[in-house]
Design a protein that fits this description.
The chain contains four helices and two strands, in the order H-E-E-H-H-H. The N and C termini lie far apart (39 Å). It folds into two domains: 30 residues, no CATH class; 41 residues. It is mainly α.
Length: 86
Amino acid sequence: MLNCEESEDEELMATGKHFYKHLDKEQYCNVNIELNMEQLAQMVCKTNYGLHRFISEVIDIKRTSKWQEDKEFADGLESLLNKGYF
């Protein structure tokens, strides 16, 4: 398991890889999970209506957030989606 020391973060970023830091209340940062953002983007964009489906899911997630700014973000993103920008 990796901790959140700054030197380790710098090493991870130097590799050019993307990481998600899993946080919890007890240990604050107990694991870094490698994400292949390029592969994720390819999967989303190359499927039938993939980008539209992905953005729709983001809208649904943000809309159920307890934060007002997330709900406003969802409304703005939905407006762009409905105007055909995606």
